[in-house]
Protein backbone atom coordinates (compact mmCIF):
# COMPACT_ATOMS: atom_id res chain seq x y z
CA UNK A 1 0.00 0.00 0.00
CA UNK A 2 1.37 3.42 -0.96
CA UNK A 3 1.82 5.86 1.90
CA UNK A 4 0.31 9.34 1.76
CA UNK A 5 2.58 12.26 0.93
CA UNK A 6 2.66 15.47 2.99
CA UNK A 7 0.40 18.32 1.98
CA UNK A 8 1.80 20.46 -0.84
CA UNK A 9 0.16 23.84 -0.21
CA UNK A 10 -0.30 26.12 2.76
CA UNK A 11 1.79 26.71 5.86
CA UNK A 12 2.01 22.99 6.64
CA UNK A 13 3.61 22.07 3.31
CA UNK A 14 7.25 21.13 4.00
CA UNK A 15 9.67 23.66 2.49
CA UNK A 16 12.60 22.42 0.42
CA UNK A 17 15.83 22.20 2.42
CA UNK A 18 19.00 24.02 1.48
CA UNK A 19 20.82 20.71 1.79
CA UNK A 20 20.32 17.14 2.97
CA UNK A 21 22.76 14.78 4.60
CA UNK A 22 22.94 11.46 6.38
CA UNK A 23 24.23 11.28 9.93
CA UNK A 24 25.54 7.91 11.10
CA UNK A 25 24.42 6.84 14.55
CA UNK A 26 26.52 4.90 17.07
CA UNK A 27 25.22 1.54 15.83
CA UNK A 28 25.70 2.49 12.17
CA UNK A 29 22.04 3.40 11.58
CA UNK A 30 21.64 6.15 8.96
CA UNK A 31 19.64 9.21 10.01
CA UNK A 32 18.13 11.52 7.39
CA UNK A 33 18.84 15.21 8.12
CA UNK A 34 17.60 18.39 6.44
CA UNK A 35 19.16 21.84 6.82
CA UNK A 36 17.22 25.02 6.11
CA UNK A 37 18.20 28.68 6.25
CA UNK A 38 21.48 30.60 5.94
CA UNK A 39 24.84 29.21 6.99
CA UNK A 40 26.23 31.03 9.99
CA UNK A 41 22.81 31.94 11.39
CA UNK A 42 21.85 30.86 14.93
CA UNK A 43 21.08 27.15 14.96
CA UNK A 44 17.86 25.36 15.89
CA UNK A 45 17.50 21.56 15.97
CA UNK A 46 14.03 19.99 15.70
CA UNK A 47 13.19 16.45 16.88
CA UNK A 48 9.74 15.14 15.95
CA UNK A 49 7.55 12.64 17.74
CA UNK A 50 6.22 9.11 17.36
CA UNK A 51 4.74 8.32 13.91
CA UNK A 52 5.77 11.74 12.54
CA UNK A 53 8.60 13.09 10.34
CA UNK A 54 10.40 16.33 9.50
CA UNK A 55 7.20 17.41 7.73
CA UNK A 56 5.63 17.87 11.16
CA UNK A 57 7.78 20.97 11.72
CA UNK A 58 6.87 22.64 8.39
CA UNK A 59 5.32 25.75 9.96
CA UNK A 60 8.31 26.31 12.27
CA UNK A 61 10.85 25.67 9.51
CA UNK A 62 9.06 28.05 7.13
CA UNK A 63 9.19 30.94 9.63
CA UNK A 64 12.51 30.32 11.33
CA UNK A 65 14.59 29.62 8.23
CA UNK A 66 14.50 33.28 7.23
CA UNK A 67 17.10 34.09 9.88
CA UNK A 68 18.03 30.79 11.55
CA UNK A 69 19.83 27.66 10.44
CA UNK A 70 17.14 25.06 11.08
CA UNK A 71 18.17 21.42 11.34
CA UNK A 72 15.41 18.81 11.25
CA UNK A 73 15.86 15.07 11.18
CA UNK A 74 13.76 11.91 10.87
CA UNK A 75 13.81 9.63 13.90
CA UNK A 76 14.94 6.12 12.95
CA UNK A 77 12.20 4.26 11.10
CA UNK A 78 10.30 7.47 10.45
CA UNK A 79 10.24 9.61 7.32
CA UNK A 80 13.37 8.93 5.28
CA UNK A 81 15.40 7.31 8.08
CA UNK A 82 15.36 3.51 7.62
CA UNK A 83 13.88 1.27 10.29
CA UNK A 84 16.25 -0.41 12.70
CA UNK A 85 15.89 -3.36 15.07
CA UNK A 86 17.28 -1.10 17.80
CA UNK A 87 14.28 0.68 19.32
CA UNK A 88 15.14 2.27 22.65
CA UNK A 89 15.64 5.63 24.29
CA UNK A 90 19.39 4.98 24.11
CA UNK A 91 19.07 4.66 20.32
CA UNK A 92 17.12 7.92 20.18
CA UNK A 93 19.87 9.64 22.18
CA UNK A 94 22.53 8.12 19.90
CA UNK A 95 20.72 9.50 16.87
CA UNK A 96 20.42 13.01 18.31
CA UNK A 97 24.11 13.01 19.21
CA UNK A 98 24.95 11.95 15.65
CA UNK A 99 22.85 14.76 14.19
CA UNK A 100 24.41 17.38 16.47
CA UNK A 101 27.93 16.20 15.64
CA UNK A 102 27.24 16.08 11.89
CA UNK A 103 25.64 19.53 11.61
CA UNK A 104 27.19 21.77 14.26
CA UNK A 105 30.77 22.99 14.53
CA UNK A 106 32.75 22.02 17.64
CA UNK A 107 31.44 24.09 20.53
CA UNK A 108 28.57 25.57 18.48
CA UNK A 109 25.41 25.95 20.54
CA UNK A 110 21.82 25.50 19.42
CA UNK A 111 18.29 25.55 20.74
CA UNK A 112 16.86 22.03 20.60
CA UNK A 113 13.09 21.59 20.35
CA UNK A 114 11.46 18.21 20.84
CA UNK A 115 7.82 17.24 20.43
CA UNK A 116 6.43 14.13 22.14
CA UNK A 117 8.95 11.33 21.45
CA UNK A 118 11.32 14.08 20.28
CA UNK A 119 11.12 15.59 23.75
CA UNK A 120 11.82 12.16 25.21
CA UNK A 121 14.84 11.99 22.91
CA UNK A 122 16.15 15.22 24.41
CA UNK A 123 15.64 13.86 27.93
CA UNK A 124 17.39 10.60 27.05
CA UNK A 125 20.38 12.54 25.67
CA UNK A 126 20.62 14.97 28.59
CA UNK A 127 23.86 13.54 30.00
CA UNK A 128 25.50 12.75 26.66
CA UNK A 129 28.73 14.61 25.79
CA UNK A 130 27.56 15.91 22.40
CA UNK A 131 24.29 17.14 23.84
CA UNK A 132 26.05 19.00 26.64
CA UNK A 133 28.49 20.51 24.17
CA UNK A 134 25.83 21.80 21.80
CA UNK A 135 22.57 22.38 23.71
CA UNK A 136 22.13 26.03 24.72
CA UNK A 137 18.45 25.69 25.67
CA UNK A 138 15.53 23.34 25.09
CA UNK A 139 11.85 23.57 24.21
CA UNK A 140 9.74 20.57 25.23
CA UNK A 141 6.35 20.31 23.52
CA UNK A 142 3.60 17.89 24.57
CA UNK A 143 5.79 15.28 26.16
CA UNK A 144 6.40 13.29 29.32
CA UNK A 145 9.03 11.22 31.05
CA UNK A 146 7.08 8.21 32.37
CA UNK A 147 3.61 6.64 32.89
CA UNK A 148 2.47 7.55 29.38
CA UNK A 149 -0.12 4.80 29.06
CA UNK A 150 -1.65 5.03 32.57
CA UNK A 151 -2.02 8.81 32.29
CA UNK A 152 -3.43 8.82 28.73
CA UNK A 153 -7.04 9.95 28.46
CA UNK A 154 -7.66 8.70 24.91
CA UNK A 155 -10.33 6.45 26.41
CA UNK A 156 -13.09 8.25 28.34
CA UNK A 157 -12.85 5.85 31.29
CA UNK A 158 -11.88 6.28 34.92
CA UNK A 159 -8.15 5.89 35.60
CA UNK A 160 -7.12 2.40 36.59
CA UNK A 161 -6.00 -1.00 35.41
CA UNK A 162 -8.79 -1.49 32.89
CA UNK A 163 -8.21 1.84 31.13
CA UNK A 164 -4.45 1.29 31.15
CA UNK A 165 -4.79 -2.21 29.67
CA UNK A 166 -7.13 -1.15 26.88
CA UNK A 167 -5.15 2.02 26.10
CA UNK A 168 -1.95 0.01 25.84
CA UNK A 169 -3.52 -2.36 23.34
CA UNK A 170 -4.92 0.48 21.25
CA UNK A 171 -1.70 2.49 21.11
CA UNK A 172 0.32 -0.68 20.52
CA UNK A 173 -1.92 -2.04 17.79
CA UNK A 174 -0.35 -3.67 14.74
CA UNK A 175 -3.36 -2.78 12.58
CA UNK A 176 -2.62 -0.65 9.50
CA UNK A 177 -4.08 2.84 9.58
CA UNK A 178 -5.09 2.65 5.94
CA UNK A 179 -5.79 5.61 3.64
CA UNK A 180 -6.61 9.09 4.92
CA UNK A 181 -10.41 9.02 4.82
CA UNK A 182 -12.95 11.30 6.54
CA UNK A 183 -13.37 8.69 9.26
CA UNK A 184 -9.60 8.43 9.71
CA UNK A 185 -9.35 12.21 10.07
CA UNK A 186 -12.06 12.22 12.73
CA UNK A 187 -10.32 9.48 14.72
CA UNK A 188 -6.93 11.16 14.50
CA UNK A 189 -8.39 14.53 15.49
CA UNK A 190 -10.14 13.03 18.51
CA UNK A 191 -7.03 11.17 19.72
CA UNK A 192 -4.33 13.73 19.03
CA UNK A 193 -5.76 17.22 18.48
CA UNK A 194 -7.98 19.78 20.12
CA UNK A 195 -11.66 20.02 19.17
CA UNK A 196 -11.19 23.39 17.44
CA UNK A 197 -8.33 22.22 15.20
CA UNK A 198 -8.80 23.55 11.68
CA UNK A 199 -9.24 21.13 8.75
CA UNK A 200 -5.83 22.01 7.25
CA UNK A 201 -4.15 21.10 10.55
CA UNK A 202 -5.97 17.78 10.71
CA UNK A 203 -5.18 16.97 7.09
CA UNK A 204 -1.49 17.72 7.53
CA UNK A 205 -1.22 15.57 10.67
CA UNK A 206 -3.26 12.72 9.22
CA UNK A 207 -1.02 12.48 6.16
CA UNK A 208 2.12 12.48 8.30
CA UNK A 209 0.89 9.88 10.81
CA UNK A 210 -0.62 7.57 8.18
CA UNK A 211 2.71 7.59 6.31
CA UNK A 212 4.48 5.92 9.25
CA UNK A 213 4.89 2.16 8.62
CA UNK A 214 2.76 0.13 11.02
CA UNK A 215 5.73 -2.03 12.02
CA UNK A 216 7.62 1.09 13.08
CA UNK A 217 4.58 2.46 14.89
CA UNK A 218 4.17 -0.83 16.76
CA UNK A 219 7.86 -1.21 17.65
CA UNK A 220 8.15 2.27 19.14
CA UNK A 221 4.85 1.94 21.01
CA UNK A 222 6.54 -0.59 23.30
CA UNK A 223 9.34 1.87 24.08
CA UNK A 224 6.80 4.54 24.99
CA UNK A 225 4.75 2.11 27.09
CA UNK A 226 7.73 1.30 29.30
CA UNK A 227 9.28 4.76 29.31
CA UNK A 228 11.11 5.88 32.46
CA UNK A 229 13.24 8.97 31.98
CA UNK A 230 12.72 10.63 35.36
CA UNK A 231 16.42 10.39 36.20
CA UNK A 232 17.36 11.83 32.81
CA UNK A 233 15.09 14.84 33.38
CA UNK A 234 17.14 15.77 36.44
CA UNK A 235 20.27 15.76 34.23
CA UNK A 236 18.81 18.28 31.77
CA UNK A 237 20.95 21.14 33.04
CA UNK A 238 20.07 23.80 30.48
CA UNK A 239 17.26 26.39 30.38
CA UNK A 240 14.03 24.63 29.40
CA UNK A 241 10.65 25.98 28.31
CA UNK A 242 7.62 23.68 28.23
CA UNK A 243 4.49 23.95 26.06
CA UNK A 244 1.45 21.73 26.61
CA UNK A 245 -2.16 21.62 25.48
CA UNK A 246 -4.94 21.31 28.03
CA UNK A 247 -6.87 19.03 25.64
CA UNK A 248 -3.92 16.67 25.06
CA UNK A 249 -5.13 13.09 25.48
CA UNK A 250 -1.77 11.40 24.76
CA UNK A 251 0.41 13.41 27.14
CA UNK A 252 -2.02 15.32 29.37
CA UNK A 253 -0.80 18.38 31.28
CA UNK A 254 0.02 16.28 34.34
CA UNK A 255 3.22 15.32 32.49
CA UNK A 256 4.20 18.92 31.74
CA UNK A 257 3.65 19.91 35.36
CA UNK A 258 5.76 17.02 36.59
CA UNK A 259 8.56 18.00 34.20
CA UNK A 260 8.40 21.62 35.34
CA UNK A 261 8.77 20.51 38.95
CA UNK A 262 11.66 18.13 38.25
CA UNK A 263 13.79 20.11 35.79
CA UNK A 264 16.87 21.85 37.23
CA UNK A 265 16.26 25.03 35.20
CA UNK A 266 12.66 25.30 34.00
CA UNK A 267 12.08 28.80 32.60
CA UNK A 268 8.33 28.46 32.14
CA UNK A 269 5.35 26.23 31.43
CA UNK A 270 2.74 27.42 28.94
CA UNK A 271 -0.57 25.53 28.97
CA UNK A 272 -2.65 26.23 25.87
CA UNK A 273 -6.44 26.03 26.46
CA UNK A 274 -8.24 23.66 24.10
CA UNK A 275 -5.08 22.60 22.27
CA UNK A 276 -4.33 18.90 21.86
CA UNK A 277 -1.16 16.87 21.47
CA UNK A 278 0.05 18.36 18.17
CA UNK A 279 1.09 21.72 19.59
CA UNK A 280 3.58 22.75 16.84
CA UNK A 281 0.78 22.29 14.28
CA UNK A 282 -2.14 23.50 16.39
CA UNK A 283 -0.34 26.54 17.85
CA UNK A 284 2.42 27.17 15.28
CA UNK A 285 2.98 30.85 16.00
CA UNK A 286 3.34 30.37 19.74
CA UNK A 287 5.73 27.42 19.39
CA UNK A 288 7.82 29.33 16.86
CA UNK A 289 7.94 32.39 19.10
CA UNK A 290 9.11 30.27 22.05
CA UNK A 291 11.96 28.91 19.92
CA UNK A 292 12.89 32.42 18.76
CA UNK A 293 12.90 33.71 22.33
CA UNK A 294 15.19 30.90 23.46
CA UNK A 295 17.57 31.59 20.58
CA UNK A 296 17.66 35.30 21.41
CA UNK A 297 18.32 34.67 25.09
CA UNK A 298 20.70 31.72 24.93
CA UNK A 299 22.32 31.54 21.47
CA UNK A 300 22.39 34.96 19.79
CA UNK A 301 23.27 36.74 23.03
CA UNK A 302 26.29 34.47 23.47
CA UNK A 303 27.70 34.84 19.96
CA UNK A 304 30.89 36.94 19.86
CA UNK A 305 30.43 40.45 18.43
CA UNK A 306 31.63 41.14 14.90
CA UNK A 307 35.03 42.93 14.94
CA UNK A 308 34.87 46.67 14.21
CA UNK A 309 36.76 46.40 10.92
CA UNK A 310 34.15 43.95 9.62
CA UNK A 311 31.42 46.48 10.36
CA UNK A 312 33.15 49.26 8.43
UniProtKB/TrEMBL annotation:
Keywords: Hydrolase. The keyword Acyltransferase does not apply. InterPro entries: AB_hydrolase, AB_hydrolase_1, AB_hydrolase_fold. One of its GO terms (molecular function) is hydrolase activity. Pfam families: Abhydrolase_6 (PF12697). Residues 44-287 form the AB hydrolase-1 domain. Transmembrane segments: none annotated. PANTHER family: BLL5160 PROTEIN, HYDROLASE, ALPHA/BETA FOLD FAMILY PROTEIN. This is Alpha/beta hydrolase. It comes from Streptomyces werraensis.
Amino acid sequence: MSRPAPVTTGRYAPPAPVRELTATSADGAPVHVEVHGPEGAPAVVLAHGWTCSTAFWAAQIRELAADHRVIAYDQRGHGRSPASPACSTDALADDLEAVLTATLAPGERAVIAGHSMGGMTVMAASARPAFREHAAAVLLCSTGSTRLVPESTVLPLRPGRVRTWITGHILGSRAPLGPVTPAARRILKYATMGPASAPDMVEACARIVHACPRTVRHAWSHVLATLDLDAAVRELNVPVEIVAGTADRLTPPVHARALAAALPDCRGLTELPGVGHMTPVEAPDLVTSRIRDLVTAHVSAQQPPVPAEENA
